[in-house]
UniProtKB/TrEMBL annotation:
Pfam families named in the record: Cytochrome_P460 (PF16694), Haem_bd (PF14376)
Domain Cytochrome c as annotated: residue spans: 41-150
PROSITE patterns in alphabetical order: CYTC
Record keywords, A-Z: Heme, Iron, Metal-binding
Protein name: Heme-binding domain-containing protein
Natural source organism: Mucilaginibacter angelicae
Amino acid sequence: MKTNRKPVYQRKTFIIILILLAGFVSIQFVHPDVPNPPVTGDIEAPADVKAIIQRACYDCHSNNTNLRWFDKIAPVYWGVASHIKEGRADLNFSEWNKLAPADQKGKLWESINQIIAGAMPLPSYTAVHTEAKVSPADLEVLKNYLAGMVHSKPADTTAINAADKQYQHWQKNETAISKLPTAANGISYIPDYKNWQPISTTERFDNNTLRVIFGNNIAVKAIKENKIHPWPNGAIFAKVAWAQLQDKDGTTHTGEFKQVEYMIKDDKKYAATYGWGWARFKTPKMVPYGGANVMFATECMNCHKPLAAEDFVFTQPIKH
């Protein structure tokens, strides 16, 4: 006799499909709330600048998030909600008025550098939101806008001479500290960084500072062997910042010492902070940044998080 019963494997496949379909439908009801709070102080910028920022940044960095239909499908939606929450916490253009003018310029500088590094907007985001991509022309518009916010005037001779004298003291390890300061997370000031090899330089034109990044022997060896993805344990960077002064002839001088920042790689000891120990010491007295609050490292992590593909290192070594 003929039978209309389907083979066992077909029935099992059908049941599995039904279960998966039921599961997919059920998770659509698990939707974290993504509210759009009131805008308290939107960024004010020229129309072309604001258009770029709105198109590339507002979905995650403002209170005017525009979710498309495909953004709302779980489990994708869960990641979208998480990105929006983290994005607003780090930078919210709808609460721009809460930042001091200097911090506004700093956030713009940070954002532009993340765009240059290819970290923002997130590649996974622009893959489906193609309109959010920042073109080279868009980037130039943003850079020119930020450059126009910076107004510097030539320093007088007295200021330049005082800065040169301080720099000579820095070179000779003449500091005003009697013992090594220690940050709240236990990382102490490392004076020996001045004997390390410079591996890169940066310029913060938004706040007129010059920066030199030094690397210890382990970091330098990793660079030579191209073993920086990830960096090896024991690698240490010291980023030193000075004010940038220009004389009447346009010659650039190092100004007052601002700070030195350390990144210390140990993926076990600092597992909770992306495998890096963070510390910053300000002024010639090397005052630990953040005081007794160990959570100061969160600020560093939020800034470096988009560079996960580069082991959270912003400035790449100069290639010889």
